[in-house]
Write a structure and sequence with these properties.
- The complex is a heterodimer of chains A (373) and B (133).
- Chain A has helices at 9-12, 136-146, 151-163, 281-285, and strands spanning 28-38, 43-52, 62-70, 77-84, 88-91, 94-99, 102-106, 111-118, 121-129, 134-135, 164-181, 184-201, 210-215, 227-235, 241-249, 255-259, 263-268, 275-278, 296-303, 306-323, 329-345, 348-363.
- With 373 residues, chain A is mainly β.
- Chain B has 133 residues and is an alpha+beta fold.
- Chain B is globular, with a radius of gyration of 14 Å.
- Chain B starts with a helix and ends with a helix.
Chain lengths: 373, 133
């Protein structure tokens, strides 16, 4: 699907449940990620609602609801609850993820309602879809229309197509409601919400990682763009090849793509801030596990008169270790960062210190590979 | 309804036989010769690991027991949910373990293996939470 409207969210963002005859059913996984940052409250939130394993086998498949919250005191709050399939409803007809304790419902007015509890995190949020959904096919078509295809681009696209059945994002959500963490309530009201929805039928052992993220920008602030997002996807037998890029969208909807082959990525130092680990049993299994997170990560590129520089400073990190079938493990480092942006696109200048969600994924146990290398 | 410790251990062994036979063989190989007195709150169970079998019983000769583990449900779930490490639980006296170092090391290997499996098996996860709810 190359073009879409807000009205398409109901089916574009629905769950792509595989056929009951699919031989890869046990490898099925699909999820919603909701991210937001309320600047007045100084609160970051990442919520994930997932289904893992055979969705027709209540003893093998399961749902999961996850929260990574950083309130104004900067402490990390993490929560994860597994949901029996018997208590969970998802369907290919809408984006709903409904369980006894926590539910995501897509309403007739074009907004999501997230209500319920994930351990000590209590949610009552409304997230109104403010701009149309964007699919991976649309991004790929736009990039190919404006840029020459390269070998790296095609190889990465081929590998992604083998792994992922679905990738959709809702770039702008207006988030309003209440979030309660360990008994403290926070009223949320921010236009900087974001959602993505991915799924596929693969084992975690076959994934060599990626770095992705979104600057949660507010174009009503002087200097801030409509959106900045990036994805560097790792591929190849050793996972050492990578391709990707960064897209800056201006407030009036023009997009500028900076491919990874013209981008410089550098990191420095070691992050010393607050960390959380999920699932909780990770701490029991690996009490000394502390994956390397840089103190700063810098992206820069200049091309045909346009330029961009972003310095990411992680503020809090949640490390999620997922286990695959053959005991292969993959580490997700979910980072709440502040991003210092300076860019010039089509003569227009963009700047600001913008809150950001940055996700870095690597196979666990492999020597850490630097972002962009 | 909260299930009892012996019921839990029996169901866990059935689950391992059905879903993880290879890992169960490895667990038996690692823990061969161990007779463990497991206490959870006020409940007790004996886990006997022999040449090719593992069994849960209600009693054993005192001289036969070479490993004793005591903890509460509260402590177990603090560990499983990452709110307390094993080291912290032992230092706080919430988890007590008695046995020869060699026996302790082999059982620690089993514990690691079982915890690791718990992450990939929803049956295992939901069964374990029946110990609490």
């Amino acid at each position: 699907m190359l073009s879409s409207r807000v009205e398409d969210v109901r089916w574009v963002d629905s769950f792509d449940l595989p056929s009951v005859f699919d031989p890869r059913l046990p490898l099925y996984k699909e999820w919603h990620d909701f991210v937001f940052f309320d600047r007045k409250r100084d609160l970051f939130g990442l919520l994930n609602f997932a289904i893992h394993g055979n969705p027709y086998d209540a003893s093998r498949g399961y749902g999961a609801a996850l929260a990574f919250i950083v309130p104004p005191d900067g402490k990390v709050h993490t929560a994860l609850e597994l949901i029996p399939l018997g208590d969970l409803t998802v369907s290919p007809y809408n984006p709903d993820f409904v369980s006894k304790k926590v539910s995501v419902s897509y309403l007739a007015d074009g907004s999501f309602n997230i209500k319920g509890e994930i351990e000590q995190v209590s949610l009552d949020l409304n997230l109104a879809v403010a701009s149309p959904p964007v699919t991976m096919s649309k991004i790929a078509a736009d990039i190919l229309a404006r840029n020459q295809a390269t070998l790296g681009m095609l190889e990465a696209a081929n590998e992604m197509a083998q792994i992922w059945d679905k990738w959709v994002e809702l770039p702008n959500l207006d988030v309003v409601g209440t979030l309660r963490v360990d008994g403290t309530a926070y009223a949320i009201d921010t236009p900087t919400g974001y959602q993505d929805h991915e799924g596929g039928r693969f084992d975690w052992g076959s994934v060599t990682g990626w770095d992705t993220g979104v600057l949660l920008s507010d174009p009503s602030n002087v200097g801030e763009p409509g959106k900045v997002s990036f994805l560097f996807y790792r591929y190849g037998p050793d996972g050492n090849s990578q391709y990707g890029g960064l897209i800056l969208k201006t407030a009036d909807g023009k997009e500028r793509y900076f491919a990874s082959d013209i981008m410089k990525v550098a990191d420095s130092g070691e992050f010393a801030g607050p960390r959380g680990y999920l699932p909780g049993v990770t701490r029991a299994l690996y009490p000394d596990y502390k994956p390397r997170i840089p103190e700063t990560i810098a992206f820069s590129a200049a091309d045909k008169g346009d330029s961009i520089s972003i310095v990411f400073t992680p503020r809090a990190v949640c490390t999620i270790v997922v286990a695959g079938q053959d005991e292969a493990e993959t580490t997700f480092n979910e980072m709440y960062c502040s991003a210092a942006l300076q860019a010039k696109v089509g003569g227009e200048e963009f700047y600001g210190n913008i809150p950001c969600w940055f996700e870095s994924v690597r196979p666990k146990g492999r020597r850490p590979t630097k972002i962009g290398h | 309804m909260v299930i009892r410790l012996r019921h839990y251990l029996d169901d866990l062994l059935d689950l391992l036989r059905e879903d993880y036979p290879r890992q169960l063989e490895e667990i038996i190989r690692d823990a061969r010769g161990i007779t463990c007195l497991q206490t959870l709150d006020r409940e007790t169970a004996i886990i006997k690991v022999r040449e090719k079998t593992i069994r849960v019983t209600g009693a054993a000769r005192k001289s036969e027991i070479n490993l004793r583990i005591h903890l509460s449900r509260e402590c177990l779930f603090r560990i499983l949910e990452g709110r307390q490490t094993l080291e912290e639980a032992i230092n706080a006296g919430d988890l007590t373990v008695f046995g020869d170092p060699e026996v302790l090391l082999s059982f620690y290997k089993v514990w690691e293996r079982v915890l690791s499996l718990a992450r990939t098996s929803p049956r295992f996860y939901f069964l374990t939470y029946r110990l609490r709810r």
